[in-house]
Amino acid sequence: MKTTSVALSACCIVMLAFGAGAVLAQDNADKPVTVAEILKTAKCPLTADQGKTLAGLDFSQGREAFRGLSELFTEEQTTALKTALGTREGRNGGPESPRYLMQVVIFEKSKCPLTAKQLEALKALPNERGAYQQMNEILTDAQKEAMQKLFPRRQNN
What is d(CA 33, CA 115) in angstroms, rounded to the nearest whole number? Predict the structure, then answer.
């Protein structure tokens, strides 16, 4: 009788642990992905000045804003962002850059951040120009709208 109780208790503990793990995994899947959180987790957080610069970026200014974004981070921060977001080839033979950094920032600024689950789905997409349609299947309507404002041509493909 005593061994049955112990076995039953152990079984319940295991089931609770797996259940809690599933809840935690679900919570993490829905957790918003932000640049600040990525860098904080990597132990190379944004400085106050970087935070202000990031908040002030206006992507409607085109290349200036994109250049400002790519030059904003230290080497250690850029490495952490590449690890978290994946990499993409640099333009015109330039160095690799964090793959979904621009989207993370645009969605964060538009108050519709990517979730961890969405980011994992995006990272699984092929690293090629034609992946925009597949990307749209992962994004929410609010996220598509945010991208449409900046890149209308890409979103209609």
Answer: 5
User: Would the pLDDT of 109 be above 70?
Assistant: yes
Q: Report how far residue 151's alpha carbon sits from residue 11's, in angstroms, rounded to the nearest whole number.
A: 53
The distance from CA 95 to its chain's CA centroid, rounded to whole angstroms, is 20
Whether pLDDT at 150 is above 80: yes
Cβ pair 58, 65 in contact under 8 A: yes
More confident residue, 59 or 142: 142
Q: How far apart are CA 62 and CA 67, in angstroms?
A: 9
Length of the chain: 157
CA distances from 24 to 17, 31, 77 (A): 10, 10, 27
Per-position DSSP letters for the chain, written without gaps between them:
-HHHHHHHHHHHHHHHHHHHHHHHHHHHHTSBP-HHHHHHHTT-PPPHHHHHHHHH--GGGTHHHHHHHHHSS-HHHHHHHHHHH-EEPPGGG---EETTHHHHHHHHHTT-PPBHHHHHHHHTS-SSGGGHHHHHHHS-HHHHHHHHHH-HHHHT-
